[in-house]
Specification:
This protein has about 700 residues and is an alpha/beta fold. It is built from 19 helices and 32 strands. Helix content is about 30%, strand content about 20%. The strands form seven sheets. Strands 11-10-12-14-24-23-22-18-19 form a nine-stranded mixed sheet, sandwiched between helices. The chain has an eight-stranded parallel barrel with strand order 1-2-3-4-5-6-7-8, surrounded by six helices.
């Protein structure tokens, strides 16, 4: 399956028909579509909203969708059709009104601790209600069959900004019990053993099992969080199968993961409502995302953080080239609005992270409700705005270089272990008896990423679903991995044995995935790999200084002293002489373990001596930076993408002040062209990027 066009780079906007609020008049659509084409836009995103199409039971009005696809074909536009879920709902934002009269439709039943942010403003029918599911899937099947023969249709969008929610209705309780029976292989005694660690339970039958309403007993709560994630990606997978069964052309599927809530690390998210990125990515052909950087309260601010999130999403994409699609991104005015410079930074960063479509939200303003005069690209009457003109110019550059841009991709060099299970297992552990800083444990992942990003080393993020790809990377960083399983440990052991380098931070592998303490850490045989072990940890209040080759440093929050095994090398010691960092050659590879949270510390309070030691071990692993760089590249992102047609470098200054530096690509004697100006650049001279400036260099 070849999911995207090669000769055009997908750039466009969402437009009517929408899933909520008033569409602008249909008689204006023809002019709008013609204008889009003249602006070098080539893709639109529309909705087939269930409640708008089936206003009366059994009566379906697809006239708006029909007209949109007809006009798209006429004006050379491709269509992304959102026909399935939206937010927390299985199909559309709202269920059709006639369903609310059905006594079999089960309303959602939640507790008072449910986050309002994650509950969509629906009529409240639970996705697990059998009648609702049957009719929703019937509608989606009808949509796919209706438009499967359309030449304008490019891809199916199965879910708009998918999110989980919590429900305690009988249907969800029954689905939870079925999930538990599979997880525990019908062994009720094993469930009782694990659920009863804090408060003994003694279920005599599966029918007695109920979902927890609070996080007091961890193993029960962890299973409930796992299940709520399962409900979402299982439903998405079911819609993906529906497309495969009903579209003879086997078009790809996608869905826009909410950018600032990607995975379970966002400030408004939690494992209870979060997304297992690896599993969600398996439920679509190609990863899609919503991308906002200033428009919403919780959006990303730093270049390193947005790069990390994009790497998380890109690394999970099931597409054979790991391409991703931006299916929604800010276009116009809101409470905060991207400037032209910020848009340019955003667009270039998306290209650097293998994004192959940019669809703006949205083409024209809604005519009613909450988004009137918000986000719109065009002026209110549909005439061309200033921002539309500079985005048109950018799209023209993309089209002029489409075959190159569509074919190149980031390299595989370094990887960071970002297991989704660990995010679940940290929930509840970072509780009232832990320092407040410990709730920021996922900063270890971002710190590990930033360490490599600052050194311009291409970096991917691996969930459980990507672990089979581990051997493609010479370097693996393991931040905040306090829990360990036999399976994960064997993967790490085999990776090092075959020649990989691992750098991990403490506290490391001292609990199993049921939360049980190991008497010695790292457990599960990893002490042999890392050449050391510890049986305790202390807090920063008792910590001595760390003596490193380049000077002294402080610990972060916890610290452990390690006992060495034969052959291990001491990299750093504490002031009282105990071992603070260890390196060990194992098989053909090398394993390094630090006695404190060095990755989280790099983000929050970097220690120069520790940073020097980290960078020394990173260099020894054999990873290659995107280019050789000198000068001031603070908050400058330098990426290399390559493919059969050629090589490009993308240089982005995320700072609000100029940066001057030198770049020496691996192809030292090659000539390089500025993609925007088509002028040759002399890379033997300094490059100065102004505030929030970005350029693309292509090898001549």
């Amino acid at each position: 399956m070849k999911p995207l066009l090669d000769s055009e780079f997908l750039f466009g906007a969402s437009c009517a028909p929408y899933a909520k609020s008033m569409d602008w008049p249909m008689e204006e659509w023809e002019s709008d579509f013609a204008t889009m084409s003249s602006l070098h836009f080539n893709v639109i995103r529309i909705f087939a909203a269930w409640d708008r199409v089936e206003r009366r039971e059994g009566e379906f009005d697809f006239s708006k969708q029909d007209r949109a696809l007809e006009l798209a074909a006429k004006h050379g536009l491709k269509v992304v059709l959102n026909f399935g879920g939206a937010f927390t709902s299985l199909c559309g934002i709202y269920p059709p009104r006639h369903l609310l009269k059905n006594p079999d439709c089960q309303p959602r039943q939640s507790t008072s601790n449910v986050s309002v942010h994650n509950v969509a403003p629906t009529a409240g029918i639970c996705n697990d209600t059998p009648v609702y599911r049957e009719k929703a899937f019937d509608f989606m099947r009808r949509v796919v069959r209706r438009y499967a023969d359309s030449d304008a249709l490019l891809t199916w969008m199965t879910w708009n900004e998918p999110a989980s929610y919590v429900c305690y209705c009988p249907h969800t309780q029954a689905r939870f019990r079925d999930w538990l029976r599979q997880r525990y292989k019908e062994d009720l005694d094993e469930l009782n053993r694990l659920w009863g660690t804090e408060h003994p339970v003694d279920y005599q039958s599966w029918d007695e099992v109920r979902a927890p309403t609070g996080s007091g007993v961890l193993n029960i709560w962890w299973d409930w969080m796992r299940f709520n994630q399962f409900r979402l990606y299982d439903d998405m997978a079911a819609i993906d199968r529906l497309v495969s069964e009903n579209d003879p052309r086997q078009r790809p599927t996608t869905a826009n993961i909410v950018y600032h809530m990607a995975a379970m690390e966002g400030p408004v998210n939690a494992p209870k409502y979060g997304l297992d990125l690896g599993q969600v990515a398996k439920s679509m052909s190609i990863m899609g995302l919503s991308y906002y950087t200033v428009e919403h309260k919780y959006d990303i601010g730093t270049g390193a953080e947005s790069a990390y999130k994009l790497s998380r999403l890109r690394s999970c994409s099931k597409d054979e080239r790991r391409r991703t699609l931006v299916l929604e991104s800010g276009a116009g005015p809101n409470m905060s609005m991207s400037t032209e410079a910020q848009h340019q930074v955003n667009f270039h960063q998306l290209l650097a992270h293998n994004v192959k479509s940019i669809i703006l939200w949205n083409y024209r303003s809604r005519l009613s409700d909450k988004q009137v005069a918000l986000f719109n690209l065009m002026k209110w009457d549909g005439s061309v705005s200033r921002r539309a003109r500079y985005m048109s110019e950018f799209s023209q550059m993309l089209q002029d270089n489409a075959e190159l841009l569509n074919a190149v991709a980031p390299e595989r060099q370094a990887a960071i272990l970002t297991l989704e299970e660990q995010q679940i297992l940290m929930d509840g552990v970072c509780g009232e008896h832990c320092p407040s800083e410990y709730k920021e444990a996922h900063d270890g992942r971002l710190g590990a990423y930033k360490l490599l990003w600052d050194s311009h080393i291409p970096t991917d993020c691996l969930t459980e679903c990507q672990l089979p790809e581990l051997d493609q990377y010479p370097l693996l960083l393991i931040p905040m991995q306090e829990h360990m399983s036999e399976e994960w440990a064997e993967r790490i052991k085999a990776y090092v044995q075959s020649g990989g380098t691992v750098i991990a931070e403490s506290p490391f592998a001292f609990r199993d995935t049921n939360g049980f303490l190991q008497y010695s850490a790292p457990g599960f045989g990893l002490d042999e790999v890392f050449g050391c072990f510890t049986k305790d940890r202390e807090g920063k209040e008792t910590a001595p200084a760390i003596h490193c080759p380049d000077g002294d440093a402080q610990v972060c929050l916890f610290w452990s002293e390690y006992e060495l095994m034969d052959g291990a090398e001491v990299l750093a010691t504490y002031a009282h002489g105990a071992t603070a960092a260890v390196a060990n050659d194992y098989g053909k590879g090398r394993a390094i373990l630090f006695g404190t949270e060095v990755f989280r510390q790099y983000l929050q309070n970097p220690q120069k001596a520790v940073t020097a030691l980290l960078r020394q071990e990173v260099a020894k692993s054999g990873v290659s930076p995107s280019a050789k760089v000198s000068g001031d590249t603070t908050n400058v992102e330098i990426s290399r993408l390559s493919g059969e047609p050629g090589v490009i470098h993308i240089l982005i200054n995320h700072e609000m002040e100029p940066r001057t530096f030198q770049v020496t690509p691996r192809e030292k004697d090659a000539a390089w062209i500025n993609m925007k100006t088509n002028q040759q650049m002399n890379l033997k001279s300094d490059i100065t990027l102004n505030a929030q400036e970005a350029i693309i260099l292509k090898k001549e």
